[in-house]
Specification:
The complex is a heterodimer of chains A (about 250) and B (about 120). Chain A is of the alpha+beta class and about 250 residues long. Chain A folds into two domains: about 100 residues, Ubiquitin-like (UB roll) (Roll), CATH 3.10.20; about 140 residues, Fumarate Reductase Iron-sulfur Protein, Chain B, domain 2 (Orthogonal Bundle), CATH 1.10.1060.10. Chain A is built from nine helices and seven strands; from the N terminus they run E-E-H-E-E-E-E-E-H-H-H-H-H-H-H-H. Chain A is elongated, with a radius of gyration of 21 Å. Classes of the chains: A alpha+beta (about 250), B mainly alpha (about 120). Chains A and B meet through helix 9 of A and helix 1 and helix 4 of B. The structure holds iron/sulfur cluster and FE2/S2 (inorganic) cluster. The site of iron/sulfur cluster has 16 residues of chain A, from helix 4 and helix 6.
Chain lengths: ~250, ~120
């Protein structure tokens, strides 16, 4: 490692001794390959073993290392120190309650994910003898992008609506619901719609679009939300014109 | 605070208005705002008489009404959300003002169009 040094100001919070989060500054050596997560690991190994944060894969796949870096939600394993001019601040993901240091409580997100039933609910169950549920490449393309989500919650940290109204179902949960709604093997759109199409679902979104800006997987949750809005309105119009058997 | 029940209705107007204004407004800005003023179009196509004749047609009136009214609702809805994103929490009043302006604009457009031709 080179002798270039970078200052990292990191949020610290120990619920047992601190009444509020505070910050602590560390200096770490870095070179062109050093990511923020490496810097945190360096601090933990060499300087301060009490620093607490989540990580696992180190390659942008597990979604557990999300933090606010200089105020912007980032995967710290994919954020290079070389890209920052001056000092760096590392904070826990915004809009979530802090549990300790850089670790946030994600129960709210987990509960919301479950509410959109993010699994295949076929129109009619097939028996194993009847074979697979086949799909054309085109049918796959309809939802592939929305299936790329790694549940990193960066989009929630970036969303000002979620910041203000914690009841908002939020970008990733809606994108995931949309992913199953768009799946040709699925038949539970009407059921998911009860929550996605509600006042806590898509209609709370004011189309700020920050979710898609920060998404490391290019899921474009904002697009999923707008598409669900349109599908929802079309459903309403259809059920107005044909009061029965309206959902597609 | 959950979104209002009527949100989907306003969104439909917003989205229709967004589509209309994105597709047609640039054309109007170019033809009426620029080309006509700079004399790039033949006089016969832009004379007062020709315009009145054009606007007397019911389809032209309907088109203009949809374009103007929906664009106003589009702007109203967008601004309503901008105001709430900026932190002002008075959804009822804000909606009343912005949609009110859109309704007013729609009324004035109907009035103006009805008086042509
Ligand atoms: S939609 Fe993108 S930003 Fe949001 S949780 Fe999924 S991968 Fe992360
Ligand atoms: S450590 Fe897995 S995404 Fe960063």
């Amino acid at each position: 490692m080179s002798d270039k040094m970078k200052k990292l100001t990191v949020t610290r919070y120990n619920p047992e001794t601190d009444s509020a989060p505070r910050t602590q500054t560390y200096e770490v050596p870095y070179d062109d390959d050093t990511v923020v997560l490496d810097a945190l690991n360096h601090i933990k190994d060499q300087q301060d073993g009490t620093l607490t944060y989540r990580w696992s894969c180190r390659m942008g796949v597990c979604g557990s290392c999300g933090m606010n870096v200089n105020g912007v939600p980032k995967l710290t394993c994919a954020t290079f120190l070389r890209d920052f001019e001056g000092d760096i601040t590392v904070e826990p993901l915004a809009n979530f309650p802090i549990m300790r240091d850089l670790v946030v409580n994600m129960s709210d997100f987990m509960e919301k994910l479950k509410r959109v039933k993010p699994w295949l609910i076929p129109k009619e169950e097939k028996s194993i003898d009847e074979g697979e549920y086949l799909q054309t490449p085109r049918q796959l393309e309809a939802y592939r992008q929305f299936s790329m989500c790694i549940n990193c919650m960066l989009c929630y940290a970036a969303c000002p609506v979620y910041g203000k109204h914690q009841d908002f179902l939020g970008p990733a949960a809606i994108a995931l619901g949309h992913r199953y709604n768009e799946d040709s093997r699925d038949g539970a759109r009407a059921e998911r719609n009860k929550i996605i199409g509600s006042g806590e679902g898509v209609w709370e979104c004011t189309f700020v679009g920050e979710c898609s800006e920060v998404c490391p997987k290019h899921v474009d949750p904002a697009a999923a939300i707008q598409r669900e809005k349109l599908a929802n309105v079309l459903d309403k119009i259809k059920s107005f014109i044909l009061p029965r058997g309206s959902s597609r | 605070m959950a979104a209002q029940k009527t949100e989907s209705f306003w969104w439909l107007l917003f989205s229709a208005g967004g589509m209309m204004s994105a597709i047609f407004l640039p054309g109007h800005v170019f033809f009426q705002g620029l080309a006509m003023q700079l004399g790039w179009l033949p006089e016969s196509a832009t004379s007062y008489g020709r315009m009145v004749e054009l606007l007397s047609h019911p389809i032209a009136k309907l088109y203009l009404l949809a374009l103007i009214s929906l664009s106003l609702f589009h702007a109203g809805h967008r601004l309503k959300h901008v105001v709430s994103d900026l932190g002002l929490e008075a959804p009822g009043l804000v909606a009343f003002i912005f949609y009110g302006v859109a309704f007013l604009g729609t009324g004035l457009t109907v009035f103006a169009l009805a008086n042509i031709g």
